[in-house]
Each structure stands twice: as structure tokens, then as C-alpha cells.
Specification:
The complex is a heterodimer of chains A (about 400) and B (about 210). Chain A is mostly helical and about 400 residues long. Chain A has 15 helices and five strands. The chains are: A mainly alpha (about 400), B mainly alpha (about 210).
Chain lengths: ~400, ~210
């Protein structure tokens, strides 16, 4: 018997793995595209109770057992179904334990062992079902019903989850431990299964459900708050469209100003530097040394280029410059024409030039240096002056004399 | 080194709002009854008191006693609030609609400027809206490009304390508790003026769906 069962199970699992893509397609889209798959395979899957056809003209769908397996295995958040038929499960447990006790009483130990195994399986299925239910609820809370888009849908989902929680709680009340204690009697194994295991799972489950319920209420409150806020914003815009000159009355004129509008402005200003504090010395030094960087940064912003550039002034400067060099050229010509040695300052004086004498001297020297070498050879230039009275080696030029070679 | 108490006091006296997003440690500090009491005594010295809004989510300093001088300050402040309400509401709705969600902007909500900007650039109605919003005196943008307008709006909101930019390198903004404060102001005005704004919005939505 068990050998046959094993073979059939292996065949089923093999079929599952061989046709995994068909099954996943059915899981994800809801039905199988029959034109893509050979009818033989479909027939085989139907015979193995993996697929079924709910109505003659509908698609082939996954059996709910397979779907449940996938949902549990994949932790799929779409698993919104909570199966909690605890009443019948408890009735089954009571019946099985009576079978077990009867078999023990009649000393049919093998049969008793089979019944106990079955009972163990049932108890664990029940506890697994409870914890799955709670897990599914938590999953939905944790992503805040992320699988639906709009707030209204979230609120509806939340209400569904709340009704499921109260259903679960109602069903949990059906586990009466006094009755189970009586059923278990003095049998150690039965007591362990029916009282200890169930009790643990029951306690955990009710505790978690209480948390779930609180969270759901909190979430619902938040969703409603969000909805209220959006309406508030939209309402305010509408109101402003209808009454563009709307101004709220000044609540600060009321004898008791609402706390909401009583906001004291800032009063602290940045503290000043204490240069006497030696502890700050390093920091202040660092600040001072970074000041140069600030200047550097300021230079790097030549963006404001749209200003009018005052061209006239620059031209004036150039003109003056030209006058100076023009005068120097004239001076050189005078020297050539007269053929005599003329000092620069004398010429300056004679022509009543307006330039600063020092600038004039520099320009004359510069003018000489600026000539091409062969032209320089025609002129002899000599500096008049005396050595500096204090600093050795320094020669103070007071005038320049220029003549023809 | 300054103590937590000193830091909190400094923030309050600089006119800042303290919420879980802007400064979590300070906010937790103020949750403690005895800590709040300590701060309160120190604020009282300067004619200020610790005030909360949005169900204890936001702390700020309020005047303890109101004389003419304080009233004058509050009146001008209120005028600012009243004038800025419309631009802020329009901005809040724009962000919400551009994100395509029913969730209004509220404390802790991250806003990725790049994503938002892409949506706004691709939708002419949003682009028009941001241009209109940026022209309000509150934001005072003169930029002709959408990029400049949106950046200016966000910069101003950071300056005003409605948004936080945790990383100066990244264009990620987080809404602070001051947004919740703003909602509370709206709700207060709604109640005080009997505007029934929510009902108006609901009616309008119903009419739209009928059409």
C-alpha cells in the first residue's frame, strides 16, 4: 500500500517538475493556453489533479492545492486568502483522538500508532495554517497594501483584512481547551499534541492577531488621514478659484492667539570670534588661511558679463600713452635735427610738457631701449646722477642726456 | 561640546521646527517629560514656551506672554503664512499628481527631484503649473527654463524648512514635519472659516465622475 502511494507521489512530483513552465504560466496568468501545449500532456495533468476545468467552456486552471503550495513556497503577497475552518479541524482532532484511544484500549498498537501519526499531522497542519494566516496578514501590512494603487482600494483591502482578523479570532475561540483536556485524558502523547502544541500556537496566534488588528486600525487611520489631506488641498484650490480674494481673518488679533500661529521668530545670532581664547587659535588660523581661497573663488565668477564696457575711458588712457611716446619721438627728432646734447629734463622744461618728470625720464629711457639695435647706434645716451649716499652700489638717476654719436 | 539640551535650545531659539526627520535625536529628547520640562524653564526666561503641533510630531518655540510688540510680530508672520498658503498648496498637489499617487506629501516622504523633473518636463500641464508656482513671490523665480524654476522652488522650500536635503551632492529631498504643520494650519482655517473644504473637494470629484 505505502509502496504504491510512494510511487504515485513520485510520479506526481515528476509531472510537476517536467511541466513546471505550464504550471507557472497557469499560476501567473490564471489559465493555460491550450493551443501551445499538447493535449496529451494536458490530459495527464488533469488526471493527476494538477489542472482542472471548472466549467466546460472555461480555461484549464490550477487546482487550489497546487496554487496554495506555490503561494506558500514563494511567499507571494497575492496570497490574500486565509483559510480558517478551525471548527471542523477541531472536530476532526476529537474524532481521531477517540479512534486512537479506542485502539489503545483494544490493545491494537499498530493501528493506534497510525491514528496518532494522523493526528500529529492534523495538529501541525492546523498550527501551520494559523501561522500562515497571520504571516499573510503581516505581509500585507508591511508593504501597506502595496499591491493596490489607489487609497480607496487600500482602504477596502484594509477593511477586508480586518474582517479576516475578526473571523480568525472568532474561530480561535472555538478551540476550547477544557474540552481538549478532557479528550486527551491522561494520555501523555495526546496531552502533548492537543494541549501543549495547540496551546502554544493558540497563544502566539492570538497575540500576533492583536498586534495585527492594532496595526490595521493604525493604517486605516493613516489612509483616511491621507485621503482627508488630499481633499483638503483640492478643496482649498477650489475655494480659491471660486473666491480669488479669499483671505482668512487674522487670528493673531484674537484675545487668545491659537498656539498654531504663535511661532516665536529666531533670536540667536551667530557668536563673535574670541581671539583671546588660545584653544581656538588653530581653528581661527585655519579660517584665516582659507580667506585667500575666498578671493580666489570670487575671481572665478566672471559670469556677470552683460555690463556695458566703458570703451571711451580706455581710449583716453591709450591716447595719453600715445602723447607720451609721441613727445619722446619728438625729443629724439629734436636731438637729430639740432645735433646737440640735450638733457631730457631740459627738453621737458623747454617744451612745457605736462607729464610727470619721472614718468618722462622712464619713457625716454624706454623709448631708447625700444629702438632697433642699428638705430640705437646713432644715439648716445648717458644717465646723470650720483651714487646713493647711504646704500652702496645704488645709483640715483636725476636726468638723462641724449645726443648723436 | 554642547549637550543635547543646549543643541535643542539653540534650535528652538533660532526659530526652527524640530521633528523626527529634521533632527531625530532632538525630537526624541523632547519626547521625554523631564527633558521637555527643563527646556521649558529655560525658554520661559526669554518669554518663550515649548509648543507642539501635528499631534506632538513637531516642536517649536512660541511666545509665552503676548504684549503689543509680540502681537505685531505674529501679525506680520500670519500675513506671510496666509499669503504663502496658495503657492504651497499648489506645489503640494503638483508633487502628488506628478508622482501619480494618492499619498499627499507628508513628513518623511522622499522626493527625488530628477524623477519629478522628468515627469514635469514630459507633461505640458505640469510644466505650466510649475512655471506659475515659481512666479509667486514666495519662490520669486525669474528663470525662463523649467530646470531653473524647479530648482529655485526646491531651494526656497529647503530654506523655509519644509524640505531637507540630506546629501548636498544628491537631488533627494525629504519632507519635514513643517509640512504637517502646514496641513494643520489649513485645517484650522477650514474650521475657523467654516469652509468645509473636504466636502467641496468630494462634491467636485463626484461631479467629475458623473460627467
Amino acid at each position: 500500500m505505502s509502496r504504491n502511494l510512494q510511487q504515485a507521489g513520485v510520479r506526481l512530483l515528476n509531472a510537476l517538475s517536467r511541466h513546471s513552465d505550464i504550471i507557472m504560466q497557469a499560476y501567473l496568468t490564471g489559465g493555460v493556453d491550450e493551443s501551445q501545449v499538447s493535449p496529451k500532456v494536458l490530459e495527464q495533468l488533469k488526471n493527476l489533479n494538477i489542472l482542472w476545468r471548472p466549467e466546460p467552456d472555461s480555461d484549464l486552471r490550477l487546482k487550489s492545492a497546487v496554487r496554495n503550495l506555490l503561494e506558500a513556497g514563494l511567499n507571494d503577497e497575492r496570497n490574500r486568502h486565509i483559510n480558517a475552518n478551525i471548527g471542523s479541524a477541531i472536530a476532526a482532532l476529537t474524532t481521531l483522538s477517540q479512534h486512537y484511544k479506542e485502539a489503545l484500549y483494544n490493545q491494537r498498537f499498530e493501528q493506534a500508532q497510525a491514528h496518532l501519526n494522523n493526528l500529529t499531522e492534523q495538529v501541525y497542519v492546523l498550527t501551520d495554517m494559523l501561522s500562515n494566516g497571520v504571516r499573510a496578514l503581516f505581509g500585507r501590512i508591511n508593504n501597506e497594501f502595496g499591491y493596490v494603487d489607489s487609497l480607496d482600494a487600500k482602504i477596502r483591502e484594509n477593511e477586508l483584512a480586518q474582517s479576516q482578523v475578526s473571523d480568525l479570532l472568532n474561530q480561535l475561540e472555538m478551540i476550547r481547551f477544557d474540552e481538549l483536556v478532557q479528550v486527551a485524558g491522561s494520555d501523555r502523547d495526546l496531552r502533548h499534541l492537543l494541549v501543549v502544541v495547540l496551546q502554544n500556537s493558540f497563544a502566539r496566534c492570538t497575540q500576533e492577531l492583536a498586534i495585527v488588528q492594532a496595526k490595521l486600525l493604525e493604517l486605516l487611520g493613516r489612509f483616511r488621514e491621507y485621503r482627508g489631506r488630499t481633499r483638503l488641498l483640492k478643496g482649498f484650490l477650489l475655494h480659491n478659484e471660486q473666491q480669488p480674494d479669499f483671505v482668512p481673518s487674522d487670528y493673531t488679533k484674537m484675545s487668545n492667539v491659537p498656539l498654531l500661529f504663535n511661532v516665536a521668530p529666531g533670536l540667536l545670532q551667530p557668536a563673535a570670534v574670541d581671539v583671546q581664547n588660545s584653544e581656538h587659535e588653530l581653528d581661527l588660523q585655519a579660517i584665516v588661511s582659507s580667506i585667500r581661497d575666498f578671493r580666489h573663488l570670487k575671481k572665478a565668477q566672471p559670469e556677470r558679463s552683460a555690463r556695458n564696457i566703458q570703451i571711451e575711458e580706455q581710449q583716453e588712457v591709450a591716447l595719453e600713452d600715445d602723447q607720451l611716446s609721441q613727445a619722446v619721438d619728438n625729443y629724439f627728432c629734436e636731438v637729430i635735427e639740432s645735433g646737440a646734447y640735450i638733457t631730457a629734463l631740459d627738453y621737458h622744461h623747454k617744451q612745457q610738457l605736462e607729464f610727470d618728470p619721472e614718468a618722462w625720464l622712464y619713457q625716454v629711457i624706454g623709448g631708447y631701449e625700444g629702438l632697433p639695435e642699428e638705430e640705437q647706434r646713432y644715439f648716445a645716451i648717458d644717465a646723470l646722477g650720483e651714487p646713493h649716499p647711504i646704500y652702496n652700489g645704488n645709483y640715483v638717476i636725476s636726468d638723462v642726456v641724449l645726443g648723436l654719436r | 561640546m554642547m549637550t543635547q539640551q543646549g543643541l535643542v535650545l539653540e534650535q528652538l531659539l533660532s526659530g526652527q521646527f524640530i521633528c523626527e526627520v529634521s533632527d531625530e535625536e532632538a525630537w526624541r529628547y523632547l519626547q521625554g517629560e523631564s527633558n521637555a520640562q527643563k527646556i521649558e524653564t529655560q525658554l520661559n526666561l526669554l518669554n518663550r514656551t515649548l509648543a507642539t503641533a501635528a499631534e506632538g510630531e513637531v516642536f517649536y518655540a512660541a511666545y509665552q506672554d503676548l504684549a503689543d510688540k509680540e502681537r505685531k510680530v505674529l501679525t506680520s508672520q500670519f500675513q506671510d503664512i496666509a499669503n504663502n498658503l496658495l503657492p504651497l498648496v499648489e506645489w503640494l498637489l503638483l508633487v502628488q499628481e506628478a508622482a501619480g499617487s494618492d499619498m499627499p506629501v507628508s513628513r518623511g516622504l522622499p522626493i527625488r527631484l530628477n524623477e519629478l523633473q522628468t515627469v514635469i518636463e514630459d507633461t505640458p500641464a505640469f510644466a505650466e503649473q510649475i512655471e506659475k508656482i515659481s512666479r509667486y513671490r514666495l519662490f520669486g523665480s525669474t528663470s525662463t527654463t523649467l530646470d531653473g524654476q524647479i530648482k529655485q522652488v526646491f531651494k526656497r522650500l529647503v530654506d523655509l524648512g519644509y524640505l531637507l536635503k540630506p546629501n548636498p551632492e544628491k537631488q533627494l529631498f525629504i519632507a519635514t514635519g513643517k509640512i504637517d504643520y502646514l496641513f494643520e494650519v489649513l485645517r484650522f482655517i477650514d474650521d475657523a472659516e467654516n469652509l468645509s473644504l473636504s466636502q467641496q473637494a468630494e462634491m467636485a470629484a463626484k461631479q467629475e465622475s458623473l460627467l
